[in-house]
Amino acid sequence: MSFDGIMLGHVVKDLVATMQHGRITKIYQLSTYDLLLHVRTVKTHRLLISASPKYTRVHRTLNTYETPPHPPMFCMFLRKHLEGAIIESITQHNNDRVLTISVRVTDELGDLTRKQLIFEAMGKDANILLTDEAGTILEALKHTGPFDEQARTIMPSAHYEYPDDPRVNPFDREALAQVLATTEQSIPAWLKQISGVSPLFLAEFEFRLKTSTESPIDVFSALLSAQHYAMISGRKTVYYCLPLTHLSGQETVYGSIPELFDAYFFERDQADKRKQKARDLEKFLKRQIEKLRGKLRNLEQDLRAAQDLDRFRIMGELILANRHLIQKGDREVTVDNYYTGEKMTIALKADKSALSNSEQYFKKYKKLKKSIPHIKKQRATTRNDLEYFLLLSAQLEHANLADIDEMREELVTEGFLRARQKAGRNRRKARYQVYEDSLGVEILVGKNNHQNSRITHQEAKHFHVWFHVQNAPGSHVVVKQGWPLEETTIRTAAQLAAFYSPMKESSSVAVDYTEVRHIKKIPGKRTCFVTYTQQKTIYIDPDADFIRNLKRLS
Fold first, then answer.
1. What is the C-alpha separation between 485 and 483, in angstroms, rounded?
2. How close are the terminal C-alpha atoms of the chain, in Å?
3. Which of 215, 250, 473, 485 could cross-link 391 (Cys pair, CB 3.0–4.6 Å)?
4. Cis geometry, peptide bond prior to residue 166 (ω within 30 degrees of 0)
C-alpha cells in the first residue's frame, strides 16, 4: 500500500501551501465515492477526494474531470454547507490516514460558523464526513449504526471520534527510538507498533538498515525527511514519496505530488469507472454482434438453397413428362433427365397424384424465386447492422464516461435500446474533443458516431483536411485549416486518428487524409459511414505519451 500516513503527510504539506485560506467555490461528486472541490486562492485549484476501496486517496489534481449533470444528495448537502467557505487549516491526525479540513462559513441566517470536512483514507473503510465545530456529525458518505458491530457510530447527530490508534507516532523521536530498540526487527512487528507506515516504507527501512552503519533511528528519520516523488514500473507498479532502493524496475520521477498522483491514478481510475459504466453496454453489443453473425449465416444458407430453385422446376417438369409411369401410392420415381441425359430419382408424396406432386414442386420453385430479393435485402440490412455494431464496439474501447452516455443515446435514437432518461429531457449536443498542436492549429476529434457525424458534416468546412485510419473503424479527425499543412500538423492529426482506433497498439499505422469536400456519405448506410477520394497516406507509430501531453482545448 503506497498511500499511508507518510504519503498523506506530504499531501498535507502540498495542500497547506496551495489551498489554505482559499475559498471553496464549487463541489462535484464525480461518482459514488469521489468528490472534486474547486478552491480559489490566487488561482483555482482542484482537490480530489476518493473514498474508493480500490483507489483511496486525496490530492490536488491538475487533470480535468467530467462532472455529472445531476449531483447526488451527499453532494447537495456539502454544497449547502461548504460552498463559499474559507479554509482555515488542513491537518493530519497523528500521522494516521485521516485528513481534516477546517473551514469557516456564513450559514443561511448570516451567522459565522465553523465546520470540519474529514477524510478517513482507510481503504475499504474509507469515509468522508462533515461535522460542526463541536464534533457532531452532520452527514457522512457511509453510515454505520450502533448495532452494525463497528467500533464507532457514523450517523448524523452522533459525536465524531477519530479512529483509535494506540501505536507510536514516528515523528515522536523518543517514542520511536524506544520501539526500534525494544521491538524485534521485522516488518510485522513494526507495523503493530508504529502508526501510519506501510509495508512498503518498512521494506525500504529494513533494506537500508542492513547496509547502513547508522543507527536504526537515524535511518528511519532520514526516510521520514526524504522527498522523492517517483513511480517504479516492474513486476508491479508502485509509487511513493521517497527513493525505493529495494525495488528494481523503471523509475519515473515527478516534480510534485499532483503530477505523481495524476500519472498513477488518472488512467487507472478512468478505465475502472469506464469499465463499470460500460459493462452492460459492452454485453449488449457483444450479444447483438453474435446474434447478427448467426442471422447472416442463416441468410447465406437460405440464399444458397434458394439459388438452387431450378432443380425444383426441372423435377416438376419431369414428373409431368413421365406421369404415365406414376401410380398413386408411389413414393419415388426414376426418370431420364433430358437436361443432363442422366437418370434422376424424384421423391413423391404417396397420397397425391402425379399432377399434384408436379404442382408441389412448381409452387416451391415460385416461392423460392420470390424469396431471393427479400433474402438479399435482409442480408444487406444485416451486414450494415453488423458493421455498425462492430464500429460501436471498437469505439467503446477508448470511450470516456461522456462518450458512453452519447453512445447509449445513439442506440436509443436508432431503436436498439429503450430510453432511460425522463420524458421531455433534451438530448445533449455531441461533445467532441478539440486539441491544439504545437503550431496553434485546432484539431477536432470525434470518438463516437454522433461526434464523427457532427465534426465531418456540420463543423468542418469544405477546404478543411480530414484524417482517418485506413481500412479500420476509428475517429474522424478534422484539421481546421486548408492546404498546405505543415508536417507537424499532419503528424499530430495522424497520431490522433491512429490512437483513437483499434490500431493504437500497432506500429506503422496507415492514416489517410484528404479535403472534406472529397468525403461522401454512403447511400443506404448510417451517416457515420463515409467514402472518400483523392487521399494521401501517412504511416505513423501511435504514441500514448504524445497524446497525453498534447494541449487539449475541450
1. 5
2. 35
3. 473
4. no
